[in-house]
Amino acid sequence: MVCNLSSLVFVFLLFATTSYAIPVGEVNTICKQAKDPSFCSTLLNSNPNANLVGLTQYTIDIVRANVTNTIKLIDTLIAQSTDPKSKKHYKLCLGNFGSEGALGDLDYTQELLKKGDYQGVNLAASSIVDNIEDCVSGDAPSIPPFHDPSKLPKYTTITKSVVSVILVLSKNLGKKI
Fold this sequence. Notes:
This protein has 177 residues and is mainly alpha-helical. The protein has helices at 2-19, 24-31, 37-45, 52-80, 84-97, 102-115, 118-137, 152-172.
């Protein structure tokens, strides 16, 4: 009897969880708002049976992994750099990605999601994009962007693409889907 009861509870929880999941068609509708709808759909459909808040959390977790990997890459680039201009650029980028930059903004995005402040999620995620762009383009428009032959531009592009999915999701949070 105990085994049957626990099996019944498991089945109930399974149906309860999936009943709030966003259907693939809805994900595709949301992703039509993204700059790269195909990337967005692939990313979000890789986490089936999640609701909109769950998909946003999932995407935040992916951004966190990307930002952490980017910081590790920047640390390596600083250590290996012999050119003062390169070293200065990478140190600037480290500031843009660290706890006072993208990582701090990501923590704030997470906090706002937990509070249900979905407009705040959008604004905080926008700040992450600003930090990424400051790394790539520099803080001042009058200074030409640093020509970076490393893997850093690729890392920043991928991270920015994932953050753009958070921006799309945050616009849909709180709406009836």
